[in-house]
Amino acid sequence: MKLHILGCHSATPRSVAFPSAQVLETGNELLLIDAGEGMQIQLRKYKHKFNKIKYIFISHLHGDHFYGLVGFLSTLRLIGREKEMHIFAPEGLKKLTELQFQITQTDINYPLFFHELTRTESELILDTDKFSVTTIPLKHRLYTNGFLIKEKPALRKLNIEAVKRYPEIETWAYHNLKRGKDFIREDGSRIPNDELTLPPPPVKSYAYCSDTAYNPSIIPLIKEVDLLYHEATFLEKDKHLAEKTKHSTARQAAQIAKEADVKQLVLGHFSSRYPDERIFIEEAKEIFDKVDIAQEGKMFEF
Amino acid sequence: MKLHILGCHSATPRSVAFPSAQVLETGNELLLIDAGEGMQIQLRKYKHKFNKIKYIFISHLHGDHFYGLVGFLSTLRLIGREKEMHIFAPEGLKKLTELQFQITQTDINYPLFFHELTRTESELILDTDKFSVTTIPLKHRLYTNGFLIKEKPALRKLNIEAVKRYPEIETWAYHNLKRGKDFIREDGSRIPNDELTLPPPPVKSYAYCSDTAYNPSIIPLIKEVDLLYHEATFLEKDKHLAEKTKHSTARQAAQIAKEADVKQLVLGHFSSRYPDERIFIEEAKEIFDKVDIAQEGKMFEF
Question: Model ipTM?
Answer without folding.
Answer: 0.82
